Amino acid sequence: MRVRVRDMQNLPLFFAPAARVVGRVERAVIGDDLRLAYVVVETDEHGPGLVMAQDLTLTPESVIIHDLNSIKSYQHGEELSIYQRKLGDSIFDAEGKELGVVSDFLLSDDQQVREIEVSAGILSDILQGRRQIPVDQVNWKSINGGLIEEQGGNMQ
User: Fold this and answer.
1) Which DSSP letter does residue 17 get?
2) Residues 6+ apart with CB under 8 A from 65
3) Distances (CA, A) of 123 to 49, 90, 120, 133, 141
4) Which DSSP category does 35 fall into?
5) CA–CA separation, 151 and 24 (whole Å)
6) Would you say 84 and 102 are in contact if contact means Cβ atoms under 8 Å apart?
7) pLDDT averaged over consecutive 10-residue blocks of the chain (156 residues)?
8) 8-14 — which CB contacts under 8 Å span 24+ positions?
9) For the chain, what is the total number of helices (H) and then of strands (E)?
10) C-alpha distances out from residue 34 to 43, 48, 99, Å
11) pTM above 0.70, yes or no
12) Dist CA 77 CA 142 (whole Å)
């Protein structure tokens, strides 16, 4: 299973023991370790809250919780999510050719970012699709740029 971080917005927050939706995901926060740190949610009964990654199960259709107490109080503020810092970064191959810009992160079952999605532009994205590159092949050389270092694998 792979879930795009942008696709998490508006996912239902599903409380499994009562089989009911108790809210919606507003955004996901990715830590500097490239793991899901928590999700910010809007709940039906208590307004804004957050759920730590260890307290949820992520599926392509919902964010599942098993305890309503896992929804913690949340005051709107600035998250230091690497996701917002890296979106739009240019990605280059070893020969200096720009492959495109980071358009999303893809989370695996263990809530770890395993791939980045790279957009080469609207026309190219429509004709060829967006490229997914394993995050361990990206060497962030600058604040807003990365270099692909192939490790014997094929890039999509």
Assistant:
1) G
2) 13, 14, 15, 16, 22, 51, 55, 56, 57, 71
3) 39, 17, 8, 19, 28
4) B
5) 39
6) no
7) 92 96 95 94 89 96 96 76 90 91 95 95 90 92 81 47
8) 8/39, 8/58, 8/63, 11/61, 11/62, 11/63, 12/61, 12/62, 12/63, 13/41, 13/43, 13/51, 13/62, 13/63, 13/65, 13/71, 14/62, 14/63, 14/64, 14/65
9) 2, 14
10) 26, 24, 22
11) yes
12) 27
CA 122 to chain CA centroid, nearest Å: 21
**Which structure tokens are listed for 126?**
């429509």
- Helix H segments across 65-149? 82-86, 122-128
What single letter denotes the amino acid at residue 69? N
> Looking at the chain, how many residues does it have?
156
Q: What is the amino acid identity at position 134?
A: P
For 74-86, b where at least 16 C-beta lie within 10 A, e where not — what string?
beeeebebbbeeb
Contact 133, 115 (CB under 8 A): yes
